[in-house]
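Per reviewer request, we include the raw input and output of the structure prediction for the construct analysed in the revised manuscript.
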Amino acid sequence: MSNPVLVCVFRGINAYETLAGVLEGLTQCREKLTTNGSLPQTVMALTPEVTFRQAILFFTEADFVTGKTCFTLQEHTHHSLQSLSFSFSVGESWRCRAESLFTYLHTGAQVLCTVLLIKPGVWSRNLARILRNLELEKFTLVGMKHMDLEPAIALGLLPSEVKQDPAALEAHCTYLTSGTALVLCLERPNAVKKLVDLLGPEDPKLAQALGPCLWRAQYGTSTVHNGFYGSKSYQMAVRDMKLFFPEGLCCAKCQTLEEEEV
């Protein structure tokens, strides 16, 4: 109790595994990082339940803020618990919203929606298998429609690096508009990242090298004919839901995703 300790709360996807990996890396680099061969001792919570119990010892709900422009620093000394909060803005304006992370820890991860587009020629041959795999991965189907993509919509689905290559751009747009695509809206906790992880890299050859069970490794043959498009972020999921399901999703249980403006 003679020296102060720093108490931090981190939030992120796969937070426990990621933080454990960081701490393990610091331990392995002990000699490089310090001259005396020692690092400050660290203790981390291993489960949401332990996190909740430890967080309420040092923080109140008012201490937590969310958003890319907001940070909270807590310093616990042997005399008292002192709180210092600060924020900064990028550009002319910024927005910082307080949120009940205690409630989040207590209730668990929210159910979110994402969009999966099965490209022409893939869904007509493999739909039953794909739907079965989605069920095994705990996805719930809350929207489905088949449609012939307009060139403008196809263009909007392509990553920026493809748009910079005229030949690749033409190849992608030609393929996406060559037949009927099947668009699915899916929900589950952490839906966006889970789907991105299942699909794998855009290049099926790279996907095969990383894992033969990745969906683009199984159904894709090239970077153009790679089987699927999936929303890559929560903001893109919101955009895709509005684009493909403007009538809404009456059976979806997930909370409405809000686009964040940076």
